[in-house]
Specification:
The complex is a heterodimer of chains A (257) and B (252). With 257 residues, chain A is of the alpha/beta class. Chain A has eight helices and ten strands. Chain A folds into two domains: 171 residues, P-loop containing nucleotide triphosphate hydrolases (Rossmann fold, 3-Layer(aba) Sandwich), CATH 3.40.50; 69 residues, no CATH class. The longest helix of chain A has 18 residues. The relative contact order of chain A is 0.18. Chain B folds into two domains: 32 residues; 219 residues, MetI-like (MetI-like fold), CATH 1.10.3720. Classes of the chains: A alpha/beta (257), B mainly alpha (252).
Chain lengths: 257, 252
């Protein structure tokens, strides 16, 4: 899935009717099958931009196109993985994963037999044996595996991930990152991954867009050619991370009056 | 010694002290019947079919009013929770009527609906509808934004959102409302039957008092306690059956 953003501007209207500019003149091209990280400080507007791609929010002006079509609203072609997992607590793992597929099946769409699809997705994210568990019985890392399987179940063109590992402990996070890369290598979905961790962006992305503070736009873009699996201790990786960190910090400086 | 055994011992201890107090004439049997006398009296009331008749009368009214309240409460609660506009219109009405006790409404209900079943069913429904409605409302309002968005992205239409996301999410709170309302229904029906009825446990208790049949009076009270306890247990079991994810997280 190709995604293009042209001169995207977005203002939030505050309760006192004042406009708060969140995104200002943002342009970006995302190629099909790319693993793209949106990196920036908390509250800068990178998640808002992701939500605009998802169709959950709309730019005030400017255009976002997906495979040449303007984004008109949310849809299963751009499925999302949430920071708080957003699982359905009344559904078992299997019911969560098959939620979207069953909605389609109820409308008479011809889809793959459920057991095959379920097994494939469960194997893909490593949840064997937990099909009938409820989300509250699972750890954070496992819940997010369910979130990823659910997002993949509807065979999207792109996976939009909004700080998916931010609430997961550091050790689990590393294994989740590796597993996400292996999922990506198997499925070759376009992935747009929002994070505020320099190391995470450098470890995962083909391309990393550094977002400036609010009102945000892309400050600098990095293309990462380091072979995977990447070694965060290697000099090349450390240097790259340092460059990204400088790019973020240069944006944090406020002009002195 | 588990806490269940301690609880049982406490009840047995109370019964023993109570029985002894009456047997050894610390209190008059006229004012306080002993547990064994109550059991004998209840056995007698059951043998004559009298107790069953009153229980059936009360429970019929409760179930009728309770069912109406359940359907109406869930329906209005969902509407209020889901549509901000309806919330704005309905909420002031709810807030005005909610503090008005069902018993204050009873004379009006009798004036409008007569002395028959309808007025009693109405006050039960009136008393029960608020806990169910407000709990349903709270449930609907507490669906996290990201949960709604996840379902929208999966392609859920508004009707599917309601049936497959909002209602299951709200079910534990709806069941909580249902439990509160069952307790309310017992309170309301007993009072209503004391005012205007010729059957039912409320009528039985009041008549027993007026005719100095103290053990009948106690038999009525014990019956209400049993119905309340069993009913609440059944509703808890029902909730555990309907919401396995919720009960388990409560026990964690």
């Amino acid at each position: 899935m190709r995604i293009e953003a042209r001169q995207v501007r977005m203002d939030y209207v505050l309760p006192n009717k004042k406009k708060l500019p969140v995104i200002d003149n943002l342009n970006v091209d995302i190629d099909d099958g790319q693993f793209v990280c949106l990196l920036g400080p908390s509250g800068c507007g990178k998640s808002t931009f992701l939500r605009c791609i998802a169709g959950l929010e709309y730019p005030t002006t400017g255009l976002i196109e997906v495979d040449g079509h303007k984004v008109e609203g949310p849809g299963p072609d751009r499925s999302m993985v949430f920071q708080d997992y957003a699982l359905f607590p009344w559904c078992t793992v299997a019911q969560n994963v098959l939620f979207g597929v069953r909605l389609r099946a109820n409308r008479g769409h011809n889809i793959r037999p459920e057991p095959d699809l379920l097994k494939e997705l469960i194997d893909l994210v490593g949840l064997e044996g937990f099909e009938h568990a409820y989300p509250h019985q699972l750890s954070g890392g496992m819940r997010q595996r369910v979130g990823i399987a659910r997002a993949l179940s509807v065979n999207p063109g792109a996976l939009l991930m909004d700080e998916p590992f931010a609430a997961i402990d550091a050790i689990t996070r590393e294994s989740m990152q590796k597993q996400l890369l292996s999922v990506w290598e198997k499925t070759r979905k376009t992935i747009i991954f929002v994070t505020h961790s320099v190391e995470e962006a450098a470890f995962l992305g083909d391309r990393v867009h550094v977002f400036a503070p609010r009102p945000t736009s892309i400050r600098e873009s990095f293309t990462i050619n380091l072979p995977r699996p990447r070694d965060p201790a290697s000099p090349a990786f450390v240097k790259l991370a340092q460059q990204m960190r400088e790019s973020i910090n240069s944006g944090m400086r406020r002009p002195t009056p | 010694m588990s806490s269940k055994i301690r609880g049982l011992l406490s009840i047995i201890g109370l019964l023993v002290v109570w029985e002894a107090a009456v047997r050894f004439h610390f209190v008059e049997a006229f004012a306080l019947t002993s547990p064994t006398m109550i059991v004998q009296d209840m056995a007698h009331l059951i043998a004559t079919g009298e107790l069953q008749r009153h229980i059936a009368a009360s429970m019929t009214r409760i179930l009728a009013g309770y069912s109406v309240a359940l359907v109406a409460g869930v329906f209005v609660g969902v509407l209020m929770g889901w549509f901000k506009l309806l919330d704005d219109f309905i909420d002031p009405i709810v807030e005005v009527f909610r503090p008005v006790s069902p018993l204050a409404i009873l004379p009006l209900a009798i004036l409008w609906l007569g002395i028959g079943q309808a007025s009693k069913v109405f006050v039960v429904a009136y008393g029960c509808v608020f806990p169910i409605m407000l709990n349903t409302y709270a449930g609907v309002r507490s669906v996290p934004r990201s949960t709604i968005e996840a379902a929208r992205i999966m392609g859920a239409r508004p009707d599917e959102m309601l049936r497959k996301v909002v209602l299951p999410h709200s079910l534990p709170l709806i069941m909580t409302g249902a439990r509160i309302s069952f307790a309310v229904s017992l309170i309301v029906i007993i009072a209503a039957e004391m005012v205007a009825a010729d059957t039912g446990l409320g009528y039985m208790i009041l008549t027993a008092q007026q005719t100095f049949h103290t053990s009948d009076l106690f038999a009525g009270i014990v019956t209400i306690a049993i119905i309340g306890f069993v009913g609440d247990r059944l509703l808890r079991l029902l909730r555990a059956r309907l919401c396995p994810w919720y009960v388990e997280s409560e026990q964690r």
